Each structure stands twice: as structure tokens, then as C-alpha cells.
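Issue 218. Parser rejects a valid record. Input:
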Amino acid sequence: MACINNHRCGSCPHPCKSEVKDIEHNKWFSSISVSDKEKITGAAYPQCTVLWNTWTQDERAAAIERSGLYRRHGSNYTALGHDF
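Output the parser choked on:
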């Protein structure tokens, strides 16, 4: 994703890329099960979310890579079986 100044390098100095990564990391963490959250952070349920929120982006990215888990997306189908 390009930043607001059409920067396309990997070391964008603007907060746009870091904000996107932070949002994606949080979406990933919220999409996994509680047992996976506990395994990744090494803490019991309520504390694992608090611990995740204190980590830096680099620590979060490393935890995501170590886990080997992918973000779970919702179903594209409705109750009637359509994929609108």
C-alpha cells in the first residue's frame, strides 16, 4: 500500500504504513481463538490481550510469524446460501 506521499519503498517514514500494520495485527489477533491467544502470548485469557496490547509492532509481527496461523475471515455465504 502506498503512503499519502506516493512512497512505495519498504521504509516509509510516515505513520501510514505503521497504522495499517497495527490495524492488521489487531484484526489477526482478534480473529484467532482464545486458546491460540494464550499459546502465542504465554499468558492466561484476560492477561493475554493486555500483554498483546503492550507489545511493539515488531514483537507482534514476530509472534504472528512464529505462530504459523493465518487470519480467519468470515463466511461469504448468507443463511440462504448466497454469496452476495
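Fixed in the parser; the record now loads. The chain has a mean pLDDT of 75.
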